[in-house]
Amino acid sequence: METIEEKAKQIFDVHAIRADFPILSATVNGKPLVYFDNGATSQKPKLVIDSIVNYYSNTNSNIHRGVHHLSQLATDAYEVARSKVSHFINAKSSSEIVFTKGTTEAINLVAQTWGRNYLKPGDEIVVTAMEHHANIVPWQMVCEQTGAVLKVIPMDLNGELILEEAEKIIGLRTRMLAMMHVSNALGTINPVEKVMEMARKVGALILLDGAQAVPHFKVDVQALDCDFYVFSSHKMFGPSGVGILYGKERILAEIPPYQGGGDMIKTVTFEKTTYNDAPFKFEAGTPNIEGGIALGAAIDYINEMNHDEVLNYENSLLHYGTEALLNIDGVRIIGQAVQKVPVISFSIDGLHPYDVGFILDKQGIAVRTGHHCAQPVMDFFKVPGTIRASFAFYNTIEEIDSMISAIHLAKKMLK
Amino acid sequence: MSIAAKEAEIVEEFEMFEDWTEKYEYLIDLGRALPLIDEGLKTEEYLIKGCQSQVWLNAELKEGKVFYKADSDAQIPKGIVSLLVRVLSDESPNEIVKTELSFIDQIGLKEHLSPTRSNGLVSMVKQMKLYALAFQS
């Protein structure tokens, strides 16, 4: 029988892909970089880096309403990028795509426009026990402002949501179900369809945080039929400072603007201002133009790949890494859901994640340690934090082997 | 022994090591000899902010000299705080307040000095000086 290792090598020419990412040939502390912090931010292919250089070398100009040549070029490029995003998640139209500065801003936007205007005292917002702080705090803030109440769907010790509890929590007072599609701290792919069905029955709106989903698998917002879908460019091989809020056209048309300023208006007088249509009414001020365009380049890059191959390859990394880690004495995997993206959070008995992360870094291995902006998750598993190795399609079995031997050294030094 | 003499002693000890693993193993060993803060004082009040691990610090004034006790739930920060405690304990508040520590850089642990580094060495030194400052008045 083939080993996982052999299988991974067969299905995917990872070395050709690695050549597209300049930073992957870097050395850290004299060792080849092993980059396993993709859950925090991914690396960028040359295509994306070049698109930023190209924008500033050939196109730079402010977008929208410029009559001159460069302004039109920049506007076209920015709007082409919006259309690429729209196709990428299969939105009905580009007008459903709002550029934000990231997932966090996208969630805050919904909380402060829809939430602040429509929530009433006693209304309920439902999140899950595994949320990132970015999908907790904006809702807590709007709860304080409106008297709405935050409810939490619990999870079990595998890091899977308890659906029977979700049934009890989602009810007639639920106005919004805001949940992560994939957990950043645990890797769990949530059964969003099942939970969304409960929310739809009671007429609640649905926001999915897809920041950890879009880097790993194809997302179709029409098939999901969620009202909002949010994600960040920088976790999907694009630049930082750009995020996406997808919203159904009908809902975006209804909810009031977010920030006031240029670009979001139709007419301004001192007596009365009328607002532009969506998505522009949510995009006040000059945006991150090159960032949006470079996100388009990242989407081009992803589209060139065979999604099934990527999925298989990433799964082989996940399984190989999980088995290898479990072979180390004292390793406990935090998050053992059946459906996972290649994210492995773990702890080692008696060792602090910080110490382990530090000694791995000395060996060129970049992992994340700490609470991963999900303190309630750490409290639930009763750990001060975890060590998280999060893989992307450019990582290799050999890199996992390097991490494993680095962990052995860390254990030896720290015991 | 003066602060400078203790610093020089540490620099000399660390010169024996050729690679980073030996150096950090020694640092971790030093952490085991740290005078420990009372368990009851491991509270928010004694916690040093800005560390990814928890580091607690307390100080007492005895006959005009400051004595520090500390602890951490992680071993590398514990080693680092133990070096600081060794250098600054049993000194007068005046000496502690005016000292500019240079040994961290000299023993090749400079990476811990960046103010944004999550182990908070800079915060540790600041907190130790604040204790000394409070004892001065």
Concise structural overview:
With 415 residues, chain A is of the alpha/beta class. Chain A has helices at residues 4-11, 14-18, 46-59, 69-88, 103-118, 137-146, 163-169, 192-201, 221-224, 249-254, 289-303, 307-326, 353-362, 375-381, 397-414; strands at residues 27-28, 31-32, 34-35, 97-100, 124-128, 149-153, 174-180, 205-209, 228-232, 243-247, 265-268, 273-275, 331-334, 343-348, 365-366, 368-370, 386-390.
Word description of this protein:
- Helices cover 41% and strands 17% of the residues of chain A.
- Chain A is α/β, with parallel strands linked by helices.
- Chain A has two domains: 138 residues, Alpha-Beta Complex (Aspartate Aminotransferase, domain 1); 255 residues, 3-Layer(aba) Sandwich (Aspartate Aminotransferase, domain 2), CATH 3.40.640.10.
- In chain A, strand 11 and strand 12 form a beta hairpin.
- In chain A, helix 1 runs antiparallel to helix 12.
- Chain B has six helices and two strands.
- In chain B, strands 1-2 form a two-stranded antiparallel ribbon.
- By secondary structure, chain B is mainly α.
- Chain B has one domain: Alpha-Beta Complex (Sufe protein. Chain: A), CATH 3.90.1010.
- In chain B, a hairpin with a 2-residue loop joins strand 1 and strand 2.
- The relative contact order of chain B is 0.19.
- The two termini of chain B are 24 Å apart.
- The chains are: A alpha/beta (415), B mainly alpha (137).
- At the A-B interface, helix 13 and helix 15 of A face helix 2 and helix 3 of B.
